[in-house]
Design goal:
With 227 residues, this protein is α/β, with parallel strands linked by helices. Helix content is 28%, strand content 25%. It has six helices and ten strands, in the order βαβαβαββαβαβββαβ. The protein has helices at residues 22-33, 51-54, 70-79, 112-125, 147-160, 202-211, and strands spanning 12-17, 37-43, 60-63, 83-86, 104-106, 130-137, 166-170, 176-184, 187-195, 220-221. α3 (70-79) links the parallel β3 (60-63) and β4. The N and C termini lie far apart (41 Å). The chain binds nicotinamide-adenine-dinucleotide. Nicotinamide-adenine-dinucleotide (NAD) binds next to α1. Residues 17-18, 20-24, 43-46, 51, 64-66, 69, 73, 87-90, 107-110, 141, 143, 176, 201 line the site of nicotinamide-adenine-dinucleotide.
Length: 227
């Protein structure tokens, strides 16, 4: 007897490192609300669970921890054949080169608007004389400058040969904001992105979880590579 009905894909099994943190909590909720995924583990010192405890059941590890943990977590996951989506910022992305055993996607910013801000700023930099970046974040952020600002500066510097300065502001009340200000003869142009809530990052994180298993090469840096 043949079964010609639709073949239903198995849900993607997702574990989250940093699950008790601001971003990790939001990612766990987003995964639980997504019909195509199932949350299989929450790793966090604050919960008494290590990354090694949650890898056994996972297809993908999502890491929103801190700069000194992300790399070792990614190595541990890859060694176990678990694909990795990294949102943690403030570590050397070059260290991900050569990591084998699984795919890695890292994005300094998972908000679609931030990806567009970086794209528009890179384009503008070719025609505008000078540029400076002002990044503004909540006062609990550990790394300075932000990963988004560092990535924007890299993209602009590569496209235009400029050496763009970055200014960092840390204040309670802020979430994640960035302005790229261009100056020219008698004019300025400001390209600004505001993440008003951590929900802004979730569509990008879920997209990365869905796609990390099928990357043509690894590591991939930047959500723009999936759009
Ligand atoms: P947070 O301090 O609220 O949470 C971090 C959590 O990680 C904490 O609960 C901590 O106990 C846990 N942790 C630390 N080391 C760990 C380890 N080895 N294993 C498991 N858990 C560990 O921080 P946050 O505001 O949620 O930010 C987390 C990271 O995400 C930061 O690097 C931040 O810059 C970055 N971030 C990225 C994006 C993006 O779009 N890529 C957006 C927002 C924040």
């Amino acid at each position: 007897m043949t079964n010609d009905g639709p073949v239903l894909a198995a849900p993607i099994r997702v574990a989250v490192a940093g699950a008790a943190g601001r971003m990790g909590t939001a990612v766990c909720e987003a995964v639980e609300d997504d019909g195509g995924m199932v949350l299989v583990g929450r790793a966090d010192h604050a919960l008494g669970t290590a990354v090694a405890d949650v890898l056994g059941d996972a297809d993908v590890l999502v890491d929103f921890t801190q700069p000194d943990s992300a790399l070792s977590n990614a190595r541990e996951a890859a060694a176990a054949g678990v694909n990795v989506v990294i949102g943690t910022t403030g570590f050397d992305l070059g260290e991900l080169e050569g990591l084998s055993g699984a795919n890695v996607l890292v994005a300094p910013n998972f908000a679609i608007g931030a990806v567009l801000m970086m794209r528009f700023a890179t384009e503008a930099s070719a025609l505008m004389e000078a540029a400076e970046i002002v990044e503004l974040h909540h006062d609990k952020k550990l790394d300075t400058p932000s990963g988004t600002a560092a990535r924007t500066a890299d993209l602009i510097n590569q496209a235009s040969g400029k050496d763009v300065p970055i200014h960092s502001v840390r204040l309670p009340g802020l979430v994640a904001h960035q302005e790229v200000i261009f100056g020219g003869t008698g004019e300025t142009l400001t390209i600004r992105h505001d993440a008003l809530d951590r929900s802004s990052f979730m569509p990008g994180v879920l997209l990365a979880i869905r796609r990390v298993g099928d990357l043509p090469s690894s590591p991939v840096i930047g959500l723009e590579n999936l759009l």
